[in-house]
Design goal:
Layout lengths: L4 E6 L5 E3 L12 E5 L2 E5 L4 E5 L4 E6 L9 E7 L4 E6 L5 E5 L11 E2 L7 H9 L5 H6 L4 E2 L3 H10 L13 H20 L40 E5 L2 E5 L10
Parallel strand pairs: 2-9, 10-11
Antiparallel strand pairs: 1-7, 3-4, 4-5, 5-9, 6-8, 7-8, 12-13
The protein binds zinc ion.
The site of zinc ion has 7 residues, from loops.
Length: 251
Amino acid sequence: VNEVIDDITIHWHKTFLNFESWLPVNSHINGLSRNGKYIIIELDKSYLVIHLRMTGQIIIHNSNAFPDQHLRLSIKMKSGNYFNFYDARKFGRIYHVCDPEFVSKKVGIDALSDNLNFSRFYELLKSRKKKIKTFLMDQSIIAGIGNIYADESLFLSKIHPETLTDLISEKKAKMLYENIKTILKAAIKNMGTTISDYKTTGGGFGGFQNKLQVYGRKGLPCFSCGSEIQKIKLNGRGTHFCPSCQPENRS
Ligand SMILES: [Zn+2]
Protein backbone atom coordinates (compact mmCIF):
# COMPACT_ATOMS: atom_id res chain seq x y z
CA VAL A 1 0.00 0.00 0.00
CA ASN A 2 1.15 3.55 -0.96
CA GLU A 3 3.40 2.22 -3.73
CA VAL A 4 2.96 3.81 -7.19
CA ILE A 5 2.92 1.66 -10.32
CA ASP A 6 5.67 2.56 -12.78
CA ASP A 7 5.29 -0.18 -15.36
CA ILE A 8 3.51 -3.49 -15.95
CA THR A 9 5.15 -6.26 -17.97
CA ILE A 10 2.98 -9.17 -19.08
CA HIS A 11 4.98 -12.31 -19.75
CA TRP A 12 2.05 -14.67 -20.34
CA HIS A 13 -0.94 -12.96 -21.92
CA LYS A 14 -3.60 -15.38 -20.62
CA THR A 15 -2.71 -14.56 -17.00
CA PHE A 16 -3.83 -10.94 -17.39
CA LEU A 17 -7.42 -10.14 -18.32
CA ASN A 18 -7.73 -6.44 -18.97
CA PHE A 19 -11.41 -5.45 -18.94
CA GLU A 20 -10.41 -1.84 -19.59
CA SER A 21 -8.71 -0.29 -22.62
CA TRP A 22 -5.80 1.09 -20.56
CA LEU A 23 -3.18 -0.03 -18.04
CA PRO A 24 -3.13 1.48 -14.51
CA VAL A 25 0.38 2.95 -14.86
CA ASN A 26 1.11 5.87 -12.46
CA SER A 27 -1.71 4.70 -10.20
CA HIS A 28 -1.28 4.53 -6.41
CA ILE A 29 -1.97 1.33 -4.54
CA ASN A 30 -4.57 2.59 -2.09
CA GLY A 31 -5.69 -0.56 -0.33
CA LEU A 32 -5.71 -4.35 -0.21
CA SER A 33 -8.61 -6.59 0.64
CA ARG A 34 -9.91 -10.09 0.03
CA ASN A 35 -13.26 -11.61 -0.79
CA GLY A 36 -13.37 -15.40 -0.78
CA LYS A 37 -10.32 -16.56 -2.71
CA TYR A 38 -9.94 -13.26 -4.59
CA ILE A 39 -7.26 -10.74 -3.60
CA ILE A 40 -8.29 -7.17 -4.43
CA ILE A 41 -5.79 -4.34 -4.99
CA GLU A 42 -7.45 -0.94 -4.95
CA LEU A 43 -5.92 1.55 -7.41
CA ASP A 44 -6.87 5.18 -8.18
CA LYS A 45 -9.62 4.46 -10.72
CA SER A 46 -9.70 0.68 -10.96
CA TYR A 47 -8.82 -2.61 -9.29
CA LEU A 48 -6.48 -5.51 -9.84
CA VAL A 49 -8.25 -8.69 -8.79
CA ILE A 50 -6.12 -11.80 -8.35
CA HIS A 51 -6.98 -15.47 -8.04
CA LEU A 52 -3.94 -17.70 -7.37
CA ARG A 53 -5.76 -20.92 -8.40
CA MET A 54 -3.51 -23.96 -8.00
CA THR A 55 0.05 -22.70 -8.23
CA GLY A 56 -0.04 -18.89 -8.31
CA GLN A 57 2.48 -17.01 -6.18
CA ILE A 58 2.76 -13.31 -5.41
CA ILE A 59 6.33 -12.45 -4.49
CA ILE A 60 7.61 -8.96 -3.66
CA HIS A 61 11.22 -8.21 -4.63
CA ASN A 62 13.16 -5.08 -3.68
CA SER A 63 15.33 -5.07 -6.80
CA ASN A 64 15.21 -6.30 -10.40
CA ALA A 65 17.38 -9.32 -9.47
CA PHE A 66 14.65 -11.94 -9.40
CA PRO A 67 14.12 -15.34 -11.02
CA ASP A 68 12.12 -15.35 -14.23
CA GLN A 69 11.10 -19.01 -14.33
CA HIS A 70 7.28 -19.20 -14.32
CA LEU A 71 7.08 -15.37 -14.13
CA ARG A 72 3.74 -14.39 -15.73
CA LEU A 73 3.41 -10.72 -14.79
CA SER A 74 5.68 -8.15 -13.17
CA ILE A 75 4.67 -4.77 -11.79
CA LYS A 76 7.53 -2.34 -11.30
CA MET A 77 6.88 0.25 -8.60
CA LYS A 78 8.35 3.77 -8.60
CA SER A 79 10.09 2.83 -5.32
CA GLY A 80 12.13 0.18 -7.15
CA ASN A 81 10.14 -2.71 -5.65
CA TYR A 82 8.62 -5.36 -7.88
CA PHE A 83 5.32 -7.16 -7.45
CA ASN A 84 5.73 -10.42 -9.34
CA PHE A 85 3.18 -13.08 -10.17
CA TYR A 86 4.66 -16.54 -10.70
CA ASP A 87 2.49 -19.46 -11.79
CA ALA A 88 3.87 -22.85 -12.86
CA ARG A 89 0.58 -24.26 -14.15
CA LYS A 90 -0.80 -20.96 -15.53
CA PHE A 91 -4.33 -21.27 -14.08
CA GLY A 92 -3.98 -18.11 -11.96
CA ARG A 93 -5.63 -14.91 -13.18
CA ILE A 94 -5.21 -11.17 -12.71
CA TYR A 95 -8.19 -9.06 -13.78
CA HIS A 96 -8.05 -5.31 -14.33
CA VAL A 97 -11.53 -3.90 -13.76
CA CYS A 98 -13.27 -0.64 -12.84
CA ASP A 99 -16.38 -2.31 -11.41
CA PRO A 100 -16.03 -2.68 -7.60
CA GLU A 101 -18.75 -5.35 -7.66
CA PHE A 102 -16.71 -7.58 -10.00
CA VAL A 103 -15.88 -10.11 -7.27
CA SER A 104 -19.10 -9.98 -5.26
CA LYS A 105 -21.00 -10.89 -8.44
CA LYS A 106 -18.88 -14.05 -8.70
CA VAL A 107 -18.99 -15.35 -5.12
CA GLY A 108 -21.30 -15.78 -2.15
CA ILE A 109 -20.70 -14.36 1.31
CA ASP A 110 -17.12 -14.48 2.61
CA ALA A 111 -16.62 -17.06 5.36
CA LEU A 112 -14.92 -14.53 7.66
CA SER A 113 -17.35 -11.68 6.95
CA ASP A 114 -19.11 -10.19 9.99
CA ASN A 115 -22.28 -10.49 7.91
CA LEU A 116 -22.01 -14.27 8.09
CA ASN A 117 -23.46 -14.70 11.58
CA PHE A 118 -24.67 -18.09 12.76
CA SER A 119 -28.31 -17.59 11.82
CA ARG A 120 -27.33 -16.67 8.25
CA PHE A 121 -24.98 -19.69 8.10
CA TYR A 122 -27.71 -22.03 9.39
CA GLU A 123 -30.25 -20.58 6.96
CA LEU A 124 -27.85 -21.22 4.03
CA LEU A 125 -27.15 -24.74 5.30
CA LYS A 126 -30.85 -25.59 5.55
CA SER A 127 -31.72 -24.04 2.18
CA ARG A 128 -29.67 -26.66 0.30
CA LYS A 129 -29.70 -30.43 0.36
CA LYS A 130 -26.09 -31.35 -0.41
CA LYS A 131 -23.23 -33.30 1.11
CA ILE A 132 -21.71 -30.97 3.70
CA LYS A 133 -18.23 -30.95 2.16
CA THR A 134 -19.74 -30.05 -1.25
CA PHE A 135 -21.74 -27.28 0.44
CA LEU A 136 -18.64 -25.84 2.12
CA MET A 137 -16.62 -25.91 -1.12
CA ASP A 138 -19.33 -24.19 -3.20
CA GLN A 139 -17.90 -20.67 -3.56
CA SER A 140 -21.24 -19.32 -4.79
CA ILE A 141 -22.78 -19.97 -1.33
CA ILE A 142 -19.96 -19.26 1.13
CA ALA A 143 -16.64 -18.07 -0.32
CA GLY A 144 -13.12 -18.73 0.88
CA ILE A 145 -13.19 -22.30 2.21
CA GLY A 146 -10.79 -24.47 0.20
CA ASN A 147 -10.29 -28.22 0.20
CA ILE A 148 -7.82 -28.33 3.09
CA TYR A 149 -9.83 -26.02 5.34
CA ALA A 150 -13.11 -27.85 4.63
CA ASP A 151 -11.56 -31.18 5.73
CA GLU A 152 -10.03 -29.63 8.86
CA SER A 153 -13.26 -27.84 9.86
CA LEU A 154 -15.32 -31.02 9.48
CA PHE A 155 -12.84 -33.03 11.55
CA LEU A 156 -12.91 -30.49 14.39
CA SER A 157 -16.71 -30.57 14.29
CA LYS A 158 -16.86 -34.41 14.19
CA ILE A 159 -19.00 -34.37 11.04
CA HIS A 160 -18.55 -36.97 8.26
CA PRO A 161 -17.87 -35.13 4.96
CA GLU A 162 -20.71 -36.96 3.17
CA THR A 163 -23.39 -36.03 5.73
CA LEU A 164 -26.34 -34.35 4.03
CA THR A 165 -26.83 -30.75 5.15
CA ASP A 166 -30.45 -31.38 6.21
CA LEU A 167 -29.29 -34.07 8.68
CA ILE A 168 -27.00 -31.68 10.56
CA SER A 169 -28.45 -30.56 13.92
CA GLU A 170 -28.41 -26.92 14.97
CA LYS A 171 -25.88 -27.80 17.70
CA LYS A 172 -23.51 -29.45 15.17
CA ALA A 173 -24.01 -26.59 12.73
CA LYS A 174 -23.02 -24.13 15.46
CA MET A 175 -19.82 -26.10 16.11
CA LEU A 176 -19.03 -26.17 12.40
CA TYR A 177 -19.68 -22.43 12.06
CA GLU A 178 -17.28 -21.65 14.93
CA ASN A 179 -14.63 -24.12 13.67
CA ILE A 180 -14.60 -22.71 10.12
CA LYS A 181 -13.86 -19.24 11.52
CA THR A 182 -11.22 -20.65 13.92
CA ILE A 183 -9.45 -22.67 11.21
CA LEU A 184 -9.41 -19.85 8.64
CA LYS A 185 -8.13 -17.30 11.19
CA ALA A 186 -5.42 -19.72 12.39
CA ALA A 187 -4.36 -20.45 8.80
CA ILE A 188 -4.08 -16.72 8.05
CA LYS A 189 -2.16 -16.12 11.29
CA ASN A 190 0.25 -18.91 10.27
CA MET A 191 0.72 -17.35 6.80
CA GLY A 192 -1.14 -20.09 4.94
CA THR A 193 -0.56 -23.73 4.12
CA THR A 194 2.33 -24.83 1.89
CA ILE A 195 1.60 -28.32 0.59
CA SER A 196 3.09 -27.87 -2.87
CA ASP A 197 3.46 -24.42 -4.42
CA TYR A 198 2.01 -21.81 -2.08
CA LYS A 199 4.50 -19.19 -0.89
CA THR A 200 4.19 -16.05 1.20
CA THR A 201 4.90 -12.67 -0.42
CA GLY A 202 8.39 -12.84 1.09
CA GLY A 203 9.00 -16.08 -0.82
CA GLY A 204 8.85 -18.25 2.32
CA PHE A 205 6.64 -21.17 3.28
CA GLY A 206 3.39 -20.93 5.22
CA GLY A 207 3.18 -22.58 8.63
CA PHE A 208 -0.28 -24.12 8.83
CA GLN A 209 0.74 -27.40 7.13
CA ASN A 210 2.35 -28.32 10.46
CA LYS A 211 -0.97 -27.99 12.25
CA LEU A 212 -3.16 -30.11 9.96
CA GLN A 213 -5.17 -32.82 11.75
CA VAL A 214 -6.49 -34.87 8.81
CA TYR A 215 -5.54 -33.31 5.47
CA GLY A 216 -2.65 -35.23 3.86
CA ARG A 217 -2.59 -37.79 6.71
CA LYS A 218 -4.14 -40.82 4.92
CA GLY A 219 -3.24 -44.05 6.78
CA LEU A 220 -1.75 -42.22 9.77
CA PRO A 221 -3.28 -42.44 13.26
CA CYS A 222 -5.87 -39.83 14.25
CA PHE A 223 -4.37 -37.40 16.79
CA SER A 224 -7.58 -37.67 18.80
CA CYS A 225 -8.46 -41.41 18.84
CA GLY A 226 -5.68 -43.32 17.03
CA SER A 227 -7.89 -44.69 14.21
CA GLU A 228 -6.46 -44.62 10.69
CA ILE A 229 -7.28 -41.45 8.74
CA GLN A 230 -9.14 -42.33 5.53
CA LYS A 231 -9.11 -40.60 2.16
CA ILE A 232 -12.01 -40.70 -0.29
CA LYS A 233 -12.85 -38.77 -3.46
CA LEU A 234 -15.76 -36.37 -3.21
CA ASN A 235 -16.59 -34.31 -6.31
CA GLY A 236 -13.15 -35.21 -7.59
CA ARG A 237 -11.35 -33.77 -4.57
CA GLY A 238 -9.30 -35.79 -2.08
CA THR A 239 -11.25 -35.79 1.19
CA HIS A 240 -9.68 -36.80 4.50
CA PHE A 241 -11.52 -37.82 7.67
CA CYS A 242 -11.35 -40.01 10.78
CA PRO A 243 -13.97 -42.80 10.54
CA SER A 244 -14.26 -43.00 14.36
CA CYS A 245 -14.37 -39.29 15.21
CA GLN A 246 -16.56 -38.51 12.18
CA PRO A 247 -19.02 -41.43 11.90
CA GLU A 248 -21.46 -41.51 9.00
CA ASN A 249 -24.91 -40.18 9.88
CA ARG A 250 -27.47 -42.38 8.11
CA SER A 251 -30.48 -41.48 10.29
ZN1 LIG B 1 -10.30 -39.99 15.38
